[in-house]
């Protein structure tokens, strides 16, 4: 677990006692250190919600974005500065409710970034409303007779949308989570790491023990093709199991590759090459 | 020789109204004539009523004609509204198969457009183009060359039609209509192209947008040219993604912009607030269309003044500019990028549909002074530090050696660190908004035209400037003295406005929306004892000078 002297420490993390975010934070920090990253070469783009407080505690470049708009903001960073390592961090509300639209599009573009979603099945920051991963028909603060919506399955959703790395971790097994992070960070392309987490304050029924009973270890080295990965996810869902490990990993050209945008942008001000375009296209003379 | 002539090409979408217009405009420009065009088109891609007005003049004109002298109709629908717009001696050229017995116009020339196009296997608009190029004395070689360049695959059949049309004109015995030219060759360009060129000149290296009429043509130009200059341009899933990607790209160091129209602008509102709060420079172009809601997507209106000047919740810094000439479509775009960096505020460029989509001739353009606040900075210390992003006039970006850049949508201190403290919020608010005071004092391209001592004062926005200038120059011959302020900076409101209005007796605020949004915005700047007249046209068409002349003659408003 993280040491106090890490270059990635900015300030002491504050969450409720027993919050799963502590585990995610220290595993992520360890993974970054073990892979030898330096704070300057990393940009953490965060949304809104308890999970995203990581941006305050982790000593890196950071962009605290709008609720639900983490992925577009992170995409903008990566498209113009491919030399940066881009991490996007959300909770399940940020990622799968208000920001769900961007998830499929970012996956199908295969933007080279790692999306870390801490999924505790509840809106914790707003004090306990159901989220898109709250179990079907389970009672909540605002739905005593059971929440009438079926949960989003983020792993299946990104699998059919073209994500090239799909993994799931859980906060009850930090050493596995750390290894999953390392695999995801090393992957070139869009990687989603969904972390099954706990919120003892607002979702006390979900505990490490209740999660542990459902864990299905799928290992860290996936050789599955997409069909096999989807099959695994569907079967796990049917059996009420939580697959943990690397579910799918495949090398494909990234969006930057296809746009031929693999070097960092530098603005040339002014860009005099425009004068040629104006003359060529419109016979227009622009005086300097 | 005439000083000016105005032509309308009308018919249904899909018949080639736009193509015909572009060829005529190009050929006129090559003869050194000034041309202004305005096209009305429906959302229906094929089969809806459309027309295109072409104003050909020996002088620069940038407003639609008051009257049409020649109507070339490609179908019976082309006769719509002719009684409202045709001059008394106007000439109508129309297919012989159309019943024109109800026409109010005396001079109707019927030619076998449909029959010949079937016989010669050519397009109807080519027969009409041939006839008009004979009538307007356009150079045959020049027109042929334009046709060859425009659509090489249909060149042979187009040429057949053109030649036949010219022959029919020659056999008609009509006299040629020749407009005086002072020579030279003019460039033909749309506002959309000028915006794209301006962005590129300023070093814009990132674009993200979502297709929306009437902003798509800027997007298409940028998607073509930005990669040519090594940058990145993307079409994304929606306007929320567009504005937030632009913010991410700008944070990461690239000059970045997005373009949209009213509905997309409404969706971008939260993102614009984010850019203002986080001090990340962005340029947002809003090509206005008829609202509210989906409105009339293809028609002209200036009704986004309210939302552009007040785009998002909270006290956000923002700069709103509305270019008043076609040349300013270029220069204002260039300036937007540096203003956005200097004041750490989103710059919103408010454009008119009519100038953005339609071709006009221009002579040449002078580049404005260009500067950048984007620098690469590194820390001299041994340890890694967080850059004082909100205390600095520079806008560095990651990766910077031993420096971290932190930018945030939540309230923060000078380094970008999250705070809950109300006192810091108060001081950061003052800092964000305080910078704009400089622009209040020294607005972008402030200009007062006409008679600077005039007591009748016009305030116009965007393309209304041209129609008002034309009307004023006509009426000032009768001894009336008009001062005219084309209001180009809508936010912050220039202090000079109040000074310029001090001696005013009558103030006319001319704009194209139903509720008088510009008047509402600036009403506090107008002296109390002055007569205020709100002049508004909001039927989806750009203002014509006769609209102003009528207001001044009636004394109504």
What would you note in describing this structure?
The complex is a heterodimer of chains A (288) and B (557). Chain A has 288 residues and is an alpha/beta fold. Chain A has one domain (21-261): Rossmann fold. In chain A, 34% of the residues lie in helices and 19% in strands. Chain A has eleven helices and eleven strands. Chain A has helices spanning 21-34, 54-57, 70-80, 92-98, 100-109, 154-161, 174-186, 208-212, 226-238, 255-258, 273-282; strands at 42-46, 61-64, 85-91, 114-119, 122-123, 129-130, 165-170, 191-196, 215-219, 242-249, 285-287. Chain A has an eight-stranded mixed beta sheet, with helices on both faces. A two-stranded antiparallel sheet of chain A has the order 5-6. In chain A, helix 7 links the parallel strand 7 and strand 8. The termini of chain A are far apart. Chain B has a seven-stranded mixed beta sheet, sandwiched between helices. A six-stranded mixed beta sheet of chain B has the order 2-3-1-4-5-6. In chain B, strand 12 (319-321), helix 12 (326-343) and strand 13 form a beta-alpha-beta unit. In chain B, helix 1 packs across helix 5, helix 7 packs parallel to helix 12 (326-343) and helix 16 packs across helix 19. Chain B is globular and about 85 Å long. The model of chain B has no long low-confidence stretch (mean pLDDT 96). The interface between A and B is large, with 56 and 74 residues.
């Amino acid at each position: 677990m993280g040491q106090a002297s890490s270059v990635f420490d900015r300030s002491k993390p504050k969450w409720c006692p027993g919050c799963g975010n502590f585990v995610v934070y220290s595993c992520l920090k360890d993974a970054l250190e073990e892979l030898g990253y330096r704070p300057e070469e990393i940009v953490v783009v965060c949304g809104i919600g308890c999970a995203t407080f990581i941006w305050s505690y982790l000593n890196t470049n950071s962009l605290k974005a709008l609720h639900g708009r983490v992925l577009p903001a992170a995409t903008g960073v990566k498209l113009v500065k491919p030399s940066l390592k881009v991490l996007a961090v959300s909770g399940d509300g940020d990622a799968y409710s208000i920001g769900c639209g961007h998830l499929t599009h970012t996956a199908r573009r295969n933007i080279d970034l790692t999306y870390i979603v801490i999924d505790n099945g509840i809106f914790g920051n707003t004090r306990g409303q159901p989220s898109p991963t709250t179990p079907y028909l389970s009672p909540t603060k605002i739905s005593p007779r059971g929440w009438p919506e079926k949960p989003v399955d983020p792993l299946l959703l990104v699998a059919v949308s073209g994500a090239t790395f799909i993994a799931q971790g859980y906060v009850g097994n930090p050493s596995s989570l750390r290894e999953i992070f390392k695999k995801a960070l090393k992957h070139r392309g869009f990687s989603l790491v969904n972390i099954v987490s706990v919120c003892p304050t607002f979702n006390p029924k979900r505990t490490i023990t209740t999660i542990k009973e459902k864990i299905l270890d799928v290992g860290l080295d996936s050789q599955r093709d997409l069909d096999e990965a989807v099959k695994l996810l569907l079967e796990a869902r049917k059996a009420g199991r939580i697959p943990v490990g690397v579910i799918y990993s495949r090398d494909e050209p990234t969006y930057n590759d296809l746009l031929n945008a693999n070097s960092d942008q530098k603005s040339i001000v002014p860009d005099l090459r425009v004068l040629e375009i104006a003359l060529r296209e419109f016979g227009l003379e622009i005086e300097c | 020789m005439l000083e000016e002539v105005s032509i309308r090409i009308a018919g249904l979408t899909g018949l080639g109204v736009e193509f015909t217009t572009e060829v005529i405009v190009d050929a006129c420009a090559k003869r050194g004539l000034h041309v202004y065009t305005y096209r009305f088109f429906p959302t229906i891609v094929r089969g809806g009523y459309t027309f295109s007005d072409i104003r050909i003049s020996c002088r620069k004109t940038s407003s639609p004609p008051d009257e049409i002298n020649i109507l070339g109709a490609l179908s019976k629908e082309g006769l719509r509204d002719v009684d409202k717009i045709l001059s008394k001696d106007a000439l109508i050229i129309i297919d012989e198969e159309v019943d024109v017995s109800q026409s109010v116009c005396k001079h109707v020339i019927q030619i076998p457009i449909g029959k010949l196009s079937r016989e010669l296997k050519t397009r109807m608009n080519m027969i009409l183009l041939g006839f008009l190029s004979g009538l307007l004395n356009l150079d045959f070689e020049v027109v042929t060359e334009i046709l060859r360049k425009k659509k090489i695959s249909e060149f042979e059949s187009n040429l057949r039609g053109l030649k036949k049309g010219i022959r029919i004109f020659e056999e008609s015995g009509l006299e040629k209509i020749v407009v005086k030219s002072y020579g030279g060759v003019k460039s033909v360009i749309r506002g959309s192209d000028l915006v794209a060129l301006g962005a590129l000149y300023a070093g814009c290296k990132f674009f993200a947008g979502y297709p929306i009429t009437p902003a798509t043509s800027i997007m298409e130009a940028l998607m073509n040219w930005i990669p040519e200059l090594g940058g990145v341009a993307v079409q994304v899933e929606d306007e929320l993604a567009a504005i937030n990607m632009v913010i991410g790209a700008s944070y990461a160091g690239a000059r970045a912009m997005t373009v949209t129209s009213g509905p997309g602008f409404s969706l971008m509102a939260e993102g614009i607030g984010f850019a203002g709060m986080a001090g990340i420079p962005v340029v947002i172009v809003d090509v206005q269309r008829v609202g509210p809601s989906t409105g009339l997507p293809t028609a002209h209106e200036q009704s986004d003044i309210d939302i552009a000047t007040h785009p998002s919740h909270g006290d956000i810094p923002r700069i709103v500019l509305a270019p008043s000439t076609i040349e300013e479509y270029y220069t204002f775009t260039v300036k937007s990028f540096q203003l956005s960096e200097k004041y750490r505020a989103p710059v919103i460029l408010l454009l008119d549909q009519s100038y953005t989509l339609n071709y006009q001739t221009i002579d040449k353009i002078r580049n404005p002074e260009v500067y950048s606040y984007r620098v690469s900075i590194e820390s001299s210390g041994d340890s890694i530090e967080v850059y004082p992003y909100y205390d600095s006039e520079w806008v560095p970006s990651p990766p910077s050696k031993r420096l971290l850049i932190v930018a945030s949508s939540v309230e923060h201190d000078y380094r970008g660190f999250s705070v809950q403290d109300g006192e810091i919020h108060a001081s950061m608010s003052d800092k964000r908004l305080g910078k704009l005071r400089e622009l209040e004092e020294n607005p972008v391209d402030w200009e007062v035209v006409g008679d600077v001592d005039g007591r009748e004062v016009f305030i116009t926005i965007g393309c209304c400037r041209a129609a008002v200038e034309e009307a004023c120059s006509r009426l000032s011959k009768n001894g009336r003295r008009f001062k005219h302020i084309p209001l180009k900076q809508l936010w912050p409101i220039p202090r000079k406005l109040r000074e310029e209005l001090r001696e005013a007796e009558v103030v006319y605020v001319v704009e194209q929306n139903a509720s008088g949004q510009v008047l509402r915005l600036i009403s506090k700047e107008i002296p109390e004892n002055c007569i205020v007249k709100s002049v508004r046209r909001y039927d989806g068409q750009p203002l014509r000078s006769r609209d102003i002349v009528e207001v001044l003659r009636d004394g109504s408003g």
